[in-house]
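Chain A, query sequence.
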Amino acid sequence: MTRRSPSASRLAALLSAAVLVGAGFTGAAAHSAGVSDAATCDASSRATKDAGLGVTHTYAKSVTQTAGAGATVTYTIDVGTTGIGNPYVQSVTDIPPAGFAKPTAKATVYFAIGGRKTVEVPVTAAGSGWQVSTTGWFVNASNPATVKFTYPMPTFSIPGQTVTSGGIEVTGTVGVGNKLPGLTACFLTRVISPGEAIGSVGADLSSSGSTESIIENTVSSIIKGILGGIGGGIGS
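Chain A, predicted structure.
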């Protein structure tokens, strides 16, 4: 008979707790959020810019329709072009929702050697948002520049809330630069899943402690947040 170590048993118990949180609190939290808010929550938006000579630059921002409260959420920004245009994108800035901490970022772009591939890119603060920059990512009708910003969600987030981001800013050559404060994306928070609980902390284990302690803290924060949200709804 195989015996599990105390730490493995404790981790299993924490994951079970996350499932119980989902089973016990989803309905109450969603009810307090309101159906009308979720109905107007658009997960993506698009915009275009006429650059003349039959060239149109395209911009899009999107996010998953739902995300586990306390986990991570990724915004995808696409900058493309049509016609004969081939600008070089030099920076992309994402404006996240209020309270979101510094993200990590990956860019999928065309390289002269190796073609289209995905690379991790450094992120720096830029006004009220976060920016990735380069000497120039080549963009044509077949190769948009795609940047994904992944944020840790605030621990005070609770299931049943709609969260809307800010817009984007782009700089580059041949008129591709643009400020688009209205290019937003909205998602609905839900109860974190066991997989998200592990995945959202995997990159921080060396500095934040063991997996089981982080999950314990995450689940505890979610429970407190849900109870606080329900209490606020009852008193309103």
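The first strand starts at residue 44 and ends at 52. The helical segments are 6-33, 35-39, 194-199, 205-208, 211-235.
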